Amino acid sequence: MSRLPRLVAVLLAISLLPACSSLIGGPKETPKLYAPVLHPQANAAWPQVVWSLATSRSASMPILEGPGILVSPTPGELQVYRGALWARSPSELVEDSVLHTLEASGKIAAVARQNSGMDADYRLLLEVREFRADYTGNAVPAARLDINAKLLYANDLSIVGSRNFQLTQPASDTEVASVVSAFGQALDRLAGQIAGWALTTGQAHEQAAHRPATRR
């Protein structure tokens, strides 16, 4: 399916979903765009590397690529917040946060998006599997993220490492702005975990590749 029909299908699907508390009810309104404020969190213990890395996004479920801010009021139920949209898709938000964290760390020779044209040594493939607010029986929701990261060696596209990163960050209250803030905090923490893992895993691969063969 081409990108335009897919986008139309996603927007239609979201428009048919019921709305929820600041979610449920109320007159139709012009939606507000939300973008979590990111604060990259680098770790001085991460290895210093001389290789380069390109980030890219793997295809996610269409509902996860739409602009609606997803919320689960009860287990198995999926809705969207009324009058609220993401300014960028969840996969773009995840890639942005990881890229900014790696840049801010000063631990890597070069890092850029895959479509930048940079001839990178490694490729970090990010797949969003869950990106929603979740009540799970609580009075206040929490941002719930599940991201799969794969590190590929660019020379042969072999998988150097693969890992799932899951994180939950409670919101301070039920307001949409507070939920968005919780997503921002979750992205900061998750991006730090992914960036540190990518640097450590890539460096271990580099050292193994250049280690002299042991004589017997």
Please sum up the structure shown:
With 216 residues, this protein is of the alpha/beta class. It contains 4 helices and 9 strands. Strands 1, 2, 3, 4, 5, 6, 7, 8 and 9 form a 9-stranded mixed beta sheet that branches.
Structure description:
With 216 residues, the chain is α/β, with parallel strands linked by helices. It contains four helices and nine strands; from the N terminus they run αβββαββαββββα. Strands 1, 2, 3, 4, 5, 6, 7, 8 and 9 form a nine-stranded mixed sheet that branches. The protein is elongated and about 60 Å long.
Characteristics:
single chain, alpha/beta, 216 residues
How are the SSEs ordered, and which strands pair?
Blueprint: H1 3-16, E1 19-20, E2 32-34, E3 52-57, H2 62-65, E4 68-72, E5 79-86, H3 90-105, E6 110-113, E7 122-134, E8 142-153, E9 158-170, H4 176-209
Parallel strand pairs: 1-5, 2-5, 3-6, 3-7, 4-7
Antiparallel strand pairs: 4-5, 7-8, 8-9
Helix pairs in contact: 3-4
Structural class: alpha/beta
Helix-strand pattern, N to C?
A: HEEEHEEHEEEEH
Main pleated sheet: 9 strands, mixed
What does the average pLDDT come to? 87
The helix tally amounts to: 4
Give the helix level as a range of percent. Answer: 25-40%
Please report the total strand number as a whole number: 9
Strand percentage lies at 25-35%
Query: What is the CATH top level name?
Result: Alpha Beta
C-alpha end-to-end distance: 56 Å
The CATH H-level homologous superfamily: ABC-type transport auxiliary lipoprotein component
What name is given to the CATH topology?
Rossmann fold
CATH architecture assignment: 3-Layer(aba) Sandwich
Ranges where pLDDT stays below 50 over 5 or more residues in a row are: 1-22
Rg estimate, integer Å? 19 Å
Give the overall form. elongated
Tell me the domain tally: 1
